[in-house]
Amino acid sequence: MGGSMVVELISVGTEILLGNIVNTNAAYLAEQCAGLGLSCYYQDVVGDNEERLCAVIRTALSRADILLISGGLGPTQDDLTKEAAAKVLERSLYLHEESRAALQAYFEKRGLEITDNNWKQAMVPEGCIVLDNPNGTAPGIIMEKDGKHIILMPGPPNEMIPMFETSVVPYLNGLQSGVIFSQTVKICGVGESKAESMVKDLIDSQSNPTIATYAKTGEVHLRVTARAENEKEAKKLVKPVVKDLKGRFGSSVYTTEDDVTLETAVVDLLRANHLSLVTAESCTGGALAARIVNVAGVSDVFKAGYVTYSNKSKRRLLGIKKSMLLKHGAVSKEVAREMAKGAAVFSKADVTVSVTGIAGPDGGTEEKPVGLVYIGCSVCGKVTIKECRFSGSRAKIRENTVSAALALLRECILQYCSEVTFGSKEK
Amino acid sequence: MGGSMVVELISVGTEILLGNIVNTNAAYLAEQCAGLGLSCYYQDVVGDNEERLCAVIRTALSRADILLISGGLGPTQDDLTKEAAAKVLERSLYLHEESRAALQAYFEKRGLEITDNNWKQAMVPEGCIVLDNPNGTAPGIIMEKDGKHIILMPGPPNEMIPMFETSVVPYLNGLQSGVIFSQTVKICGVGESKAESMVKDLIDSQSNPTIATYAKTGEVHLRVTARAENEKEAKKLVKPVVKDLKGRFGSSVYTTEDDVTLETAVVDLLRANHLSLVTAESCTGGALAARIVNVAGVSDVFKAGYVTYSNKSKRRLLGIKKSMLLKHGAVSKEVAREMAKGAAVFSKADVTVSVTGIAGPDGGTEEKPVGLVYIGCSVCGKVTIKECRFSGSRAKIRENTVSAALALLRECILQYCSEVTFGSKEK
Q1: Quick one: A249 and A290 in the same domain?
Q2: CB contact under 8 A, B287 and A286
Q3: pTM for this structure?
């Protein structure tokens, strides 16, 4: 199969150098390239300056096989990426008729007047491959010289990502001997270091497929990547490893599909079991409900959410007794339990989830420190409480709480379903 | 004053090259450096590899005066940044007694056992400045040679940012002739291009202070930066420009304080006027409430939030009539109005804000396209409705909606307060 090809990522834009925007393009492309089996040793950011652009491209060509460059393809005088890349490869630009027509159609469809500077975007280097950009005006460009590949993509993520997936991935796959196939095993409710120790032997012993671990908030993703002569062979290599991982992590694996998130998995599970959901949140203040509403079309499953940040609202909206709040404090397993039960009583939802905790930075005590969170989950009357201790900033604690609540929801629904199934078999 | 010094940002970590994490450190440092009047032409990312680290440091030294390097200072064998930087500057490492003691105290305070690999972090290059790290185990390091400055900071943002603010900013200010002072005028409810056109004459005509515009979701920040011999002089240069900007944008300016966010400004305004708040959200699904709960200690002002994503919950929790939902549709100015009114009736809050819209990707029609959002705001019985049309992804539309709701809240409260004040004067 040979060693893997080396890619270098170059992000172009003065707005990145000024810290005006976060370079999410580089993170996206880095993860994608790893999944395609490409090695990446350097990422660069450079402004909209032809001299410095040329210097960065020359340096990158000296140490990588493939340059993935995003940004600086637009219509303004500041957009110089294409000009710089063409200069380095000693190509001249010509008017690409199809791009000109596409540009015209783009503006006409939107009823916009096309200003003269836009035509610049239809100029492309000689001997290049032109990539369609259905979401914007600047086409992508691929140039090849002496076995090196320069790939230019627009900067806006909503243009770059579809172009990368549609046009660049097939091109990159074509460059490599054989085919890359990867599948991600997504796990919730298991800590990063525990997950890593559970797969260390596999990571150390495997070279094809490889296994890479990615820690997300409250989740760990294990990506299994194989290279083979064709897709069928590559899948055959990936399959037993995915099976092994599923065996090791059991029900903590919530999906092996790329486009399924933890909230999607929870919503799918609720829908499949005809269960309705209601949330009751204190410290997360609505962030758990908002995460569930990330799933489009969730209104058949998600009935409502209560944000009861103050004690008064816990009493009014969820019927928590004042004496209970006084006796145990708002952050207690007892109040988490009553919140989940109260939400179920008031909303008549099948499943409710409650959250109460100390997100900080103030409000912690020795007995109840910042980061202490109780999560309650009621499924058809059976309530489970989980105590969590998170660290970090207020924002970090709240993010972790949301993920932990989704993981607990999933666990409790699975538990309920297995009991129901078991119960029905008993009859 | 002379030309500005040139800084280059180097982020170290294989996890960035793999796309495991987004490089937010670079964005933070880039914005800070711009505010300090430093020029930045390149950012680099390199993995935990000594040879490549040395190469990147050498290249950066050839084109910048100051290298800000984050990451790779930890206790593991992979952490090689300090070793590489010392190698390039031909310095040997020695055990820094104060860092050793600080390391020991750090572990003892937390009741943790210190493993041998940790002591590596107390080794520092000869002739360097050592920077305290109260939030972690690896100290920061500043080295100087031939007028070039290499500054090493730990990678975790919660360690890097405090170290940068406390130790690195004063050092950087000391390097430059004179002093830099900057102040940010934060604006909401005005679009980016409109804001830019309103200050273009100022930006073009000013060189000290400079004015830079930063587009945030639903906000524009204008940063005014002056350089002068001392802080008093620099402030004197900034003051009239900030005054001019405040005049141009009037009540759209919500703060000129760095640590005040839009949600903080809204909460402060509510608190100052003894007004309580309740939210009622459909398409944002709790994200507006969650943003308000970003403000620690908000429970005196924020009473509760209703997340009424389904039509049924709009009826049950907010008392919206079925006939109204049928006649106007859930996404309508009428329903936004009834949601704000219903929330006020049920919660008895002084101020309520409601949101209903089509976040997509499905559910749009020609008459009511994806991105159409109605926001309602009721202040002591007076209801204002705003229609917005956003574009972009489901996530983007929801983010923009939250910001627009905060901006409308602020506008309506200000309006109410001015009427009350005016009214009382009339008497």
Answers
A1: no
A2: yes
A3: 0.83
Residue-wise pLDDT tens digits, B256-309? 998 899 999 999 999 999 999 999 999 999 999 999 999 999 999 999 999 999
The verdict on B419 and B272 lying in the same domain is: yes
Which ranges of B64-115 does DSSP label H, i.e. alpha helix?
A: 81-88, 97-109
φ and ψ at residue B126, rounded to 5 degrees? -60, 140
B76: containing domain: 6-175
Identify which has the larger pLDDT, B208 or A425.
B208
In whole angstroms, give the CA distance from residue A202 to residue A56.
38
The Cα–Cα gap between A330 and A309 comes to 10
B302 chain-A contacts, CB cut-off 8 A: 285, 309-310
Cβ atoms A123, A91 nearer than 8 A: no
* Distances from the Cα of B333 to the Cα of B30, B361, B384, B388, angstroms: 42, 21, 10, 11
CA B201 to each of CA A269, B211, B212: distance values in angstroms, whole numbers, following the listed order: 57, 11, 13
Contacts of A13 in chain B (CB under 8 A): none
Out of B18, B21, B298, the one facing A34 most closely (by C-beta) is B18
Residue in the block written with tokens 């402060």:
B268
Does the residue A275 lie in any domain? yes
Concatenated DSSP letters of A48-97: S-HHHHHHHHHHHHHH-SEEEEES--SSSTT--HHHHHHHHTT--EEE-H
Question: Is A1 part of a structural domain of the chain?
Answer: no
Is residue A97 packed enough to be buried (19+ CB in 10 Å), middle (13-18) or exposed (0-12)?
exposed
Of B18, B23, B279, the CB nearest to A23: B23
Beta-carbon neighbour count of residue B44 at 10 Å?
A: 22
Helix or strand or coil: residue B222?
strand
Question: Around Cβ B393, how many Cβ atoms within 10 Å?
Answer: 14
Residues of chain B contacting residue A394, judged by C-beta atoms under 8 Å apart = 294, 296
Share of chain B above pLDDT 70, in %: 98
Number of compact structural domains in chain A: 3
Q: Which of A49, A299, A318 to mutate to test the interface with B (most CBs of B within 10 A)?
A: A299
Instruction: Say what the ipTM of the complex is.
Output: 0.82
Residues in chain A with CB shorter than 8 Å from the CB of B19 are 26-34
In angstroms, the Cα distances linking B214 to A20, B110, B196 are 6, 41, 10
CA B28 to centroid of chain Cα atoms: 9
Please write the tens of the pLDDT for every residue from B300-335: 999 999 999 999 999 999 999 999 999 999 999 999
Q: How far apart are CA B293 and CA B289, in angstroms?
A: 6
The nearest CA of chain A is from the CA of B402 a distance in Å of 11
Residue whose entry in the numeric block shows the structure tokens 């799918």: A268
Q: Are residues A169 and A98 in the same domain?
A: yes
Q: Are residues B194 and B327 in the same domain?
A: no
End-to-end CA distance of chain A: 57
Query: Hey, is A145 helix, strand or coil?
Result: strand
Distance CA B357, CA B374 (A): 6
Partner-chain residue, chosen from B23, B43, B303, that has the shortest CB–CB distance to A312:
B303
Beta-carbon neighbour count of residue A48 at 10 Å?
21
Count of pairs with CB atoms under 8 A, one residue in A, one in B: 234
> Between the CA atoms of A405, A358, B307 and B310, what dihedral angle is there, to the nearest 10 degrees?
10
